Amino acid sequence: KALWTPSKVIARLGKEINDENSYLYWAYQNEIPVYCPALTDGSIGDLLYFHSFCKPGLVIDIVQDIRKMNDETRLAGPQKTGIIILGGGLPK
User: Fold this and answer.
1) What are residue 60's phi and psi, to 5 degrees?
2) pTM for the whole thing?
3) Beta strands in the chain, from DSSP E residues, in sequence order
4) Is 11 in contact with 34 (CB distance < 8 Å)?
5) What is the per-residue pLDDT across 9-62, written as a single tens digit (0 to 9) for each?
6) Which GO terms describe its molecular function (predicted)?
7) How many whole angstroms separate alpha carbon 58 and alpha carbon 51?
């Protein structure tokens, strides 16, 4: 059983992209977490779904990311916390 969070999947994408034009690349290089609670809503969700037939056992824990995101905003000072919201289909 493999337990991942959306931010861990995104960090892995940043590592594997290896493209300096990608914000995910730079987030990975600088150990900046990128949170996306709706990671499974769209193409990546479809890929994860089909992957689960070939290699069952992958679990994406969205709640763990929500905990981390909320703890970071609660515990960090205002100079160390920022957010960029793209889209608007999910409640923030």
Assistant:
1) -105, 110
2) 0.81
3) 2-4, 58-60
4) yes
5) 999 999 999 899 999 999 999 999 999 888 887 888 899 889 888 989 988 999
6) deoxyhypusine synthase activity
7) 9
How far apart (Å, rounded) are the C-alpha atoms in residues 7 and 35? 5
Question: Hey, is 3 helix, strand or coil?
Answer: strand
**What are the sequence ranges of the domains in the chain?**
2-80
Distance CA 2, CA 35 (A): 19
Q: Name the nearest CA neighbour of 7 among 49, 91, 79, 70.
A: 70
